Amino acid sequence: MGQIKVTKCDIEGLYVIEPTVHGDSRGYFMETYNQNDMTEAGLDMVFVQDNQSCSTKGVLRGLHFQKEFPQGKLVRVIKGSVFDVAVDLRSDSKTYGQWFGVELTEENKKQFYISPGFAHGFLVLSDVAEFCYKCTDFYHPGDEGGLAWNDPEIGIEWPQLVGEYKGSASAQGYTLEDGSALNLSDKDQKWAGLKDTFKF
Q1: Burial tier of 184 (Cβ tally within 10 Å: 0-12, 13-18, 19+)
Q2: How does pLDDT run across 75-133, given as a tens digit for each residue?
Q3: pTM for this structure?
Q4: Running DSSP on this structure, what letter comes out for residue 194?
């Protein structure tokens, strides 16, 4: 027990989780998930699906959620670095429309738990990033919703990103500071802003 440090974020329902890392000259070992430790920390969610993705620098995935089957997500990076973001879409929340972001890297080994009711996404800051996450509900085709990653009403401060909002979620005109192009899927460039987005 006691293998993790759990920090509550300013927005209720978001937690940064830091594992205990045991390292020596051979490398390191850590528990990436222990149900007993999570329960002791007040997090009693049950995970039913694990996912992993690989993305290149400048890829932005998000902001995503499921409408009828909202997922809690425990996310981490096993290679590279990303800036991970959650936006509160819970209509009865005092922080509705607010965002929180944290850098997740293979070095800091931080994890980020996002409760159901949030939109989620991340921007890849390293040449390549491998991203893993556990979900509290299954993926349901046709149930996905999304939120414009650059909605000025929300005002997410994506690190290293340069560009000017032109009224849509298009990646056109945006780059990272080193000139790397911002790379979004066609679908992620069509999401609407907060005022026209699904609320939980």
Answers
A1: buried
A2: 999 999 999 999 999 999 999 999 999 999 999 999 999 999 999 999 999 999 999 99
A3: 0.95
A4: G
Dihedral, 15, 188, 53, 108 alpha carbons, nearest 10: -40
Q: Which two tokens stand for residue 195?
A: 């005022």
CB 197 within 8 A of CB 147: yes
The rounded distance, in Å, linking the Cα atoms of 127 and 22 is 27
CA-closest candidate to residue 87, choices 151, 137, 26, 43: 151
Active-site residue numbers?
64, 133
Which of 182, 61, 80, 199 is closest to 122 using CA atoms?
A: 61
Which DSSP state fits 38?
Answer: H
CA dihedral 131, 197, 138, 2 (to 10 degrees): 60
Tens digits of per-residue pLDDT, 11-23?
999 999 999 999 8
What's the Cα-to-Cα distance from 150 to each of 45, 105, 146, rounded to whole Å?
A: 30, 23, 12
